[in-house]
């Protein structure tokens, strides 16, 4: 009874040390297998999102910024939403996502308002035609922008007038920038020099031009007499 009491109060250290060492080895083996699995995980080289080819090595936030219509602030908010809904880390590489996850990602960035993005962050609020607030990306944004410029030209608004004549639209100064045509830099100086030479030639009297011609004819006549 005394021996068992000693065993209960003072257990043999060697046995427990061996068991702890075995547990640590097991944990290390599991961790190494997990790291190997993560390192050997296939990463897509190129991922296409909203008509844009993106390198698969890019982190999620930076990859979203490559899409036309998504800036720094919106990409940060979308990264948080995508990480929560797809259950992936925020710094995941875009090439690690599966095809199904990429489809969900495309749906989220195409309809950010439905997934919690506030209306003030959308690039087309209260559309003139539909009255709805949407966010356009990729080719849709390019097409709608060209359509808006064409409509402004047809209505002959001030912005449409400036677009039609290739001038700045948003109130910028045009004294030193925004020049187009023949009035830029060295080309302008060359044209001015040619214009000045032509004006001087036109202003010269007719007799001054006839005198050199008469002097040229005299030597020729003397040669004929000889």
Report on the architecture of this protein.
With 226 residues, the chain is mostly helical. Among the domains are: 32 residues; 75 residues, Helicase, Ruva Protein, domain 3 (Orthogonal Bundle). Helix content is 58%, strand content 4%. It contains nine helices and two strands; from the N terminus they run ααββααααααα. The chain has a two-stranded antiparallel ribbon with strand order 1-2. Helix 4 packs across helix 5 and helix 6 packs across helix 7. The radius of gyration is 39 Å and the shape is elongated.
In short:
The protein is mostly helical and 226 residues long. The chain has nine helices and two strands, in the order ααββααααααα.
């Amino acid at each position: 009874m005394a021996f068992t009491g000693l065993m209960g109060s003072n257990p043999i250290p060697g046995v427990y040390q061996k068991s702890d060492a075995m547990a640590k080895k097991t944990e290390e083996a599991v961790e190494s297998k997990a790291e190997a699995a993560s390192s050997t995980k296939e990463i897509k080289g190129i991922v296409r999102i909203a008509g844009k080819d993106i390198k698969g090595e890019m982190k999620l936030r930076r990859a979203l910024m490559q899409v036309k219509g998504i800036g720094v602030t919106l990409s940060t908010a979308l990264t948080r939403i995508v990480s929560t809904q797809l259950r992936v880390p925020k710094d995941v590489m875009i090439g690690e996502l599966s095809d199904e996850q990429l489809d969900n990602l495309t749906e989220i960035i195409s309809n950010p308002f439905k997934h919690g993005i506030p209306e003030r962050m959308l690039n087309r609020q209260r559309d003139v035609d539909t009255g709805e607030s949407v966010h356009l990306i990729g080719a849709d944004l390019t097409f709608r922008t060209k359509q808006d410029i064409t409509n402004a030209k047809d209505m002959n608004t001030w912005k449409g007038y400036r677009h039609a004549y290739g001038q700045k639209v948003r109130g910028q100064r045009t004294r030193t920038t925004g020049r187009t045509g023949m009035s830029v830099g060295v080309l302008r100086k060359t044209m001015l020099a040619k214009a000045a030479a032509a004006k001087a030639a036109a202003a010269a009297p007719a007799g001054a031009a006839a005198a050199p011609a008469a002097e040229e004819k005299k030597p020729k006549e003397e040669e004929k007499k000889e």
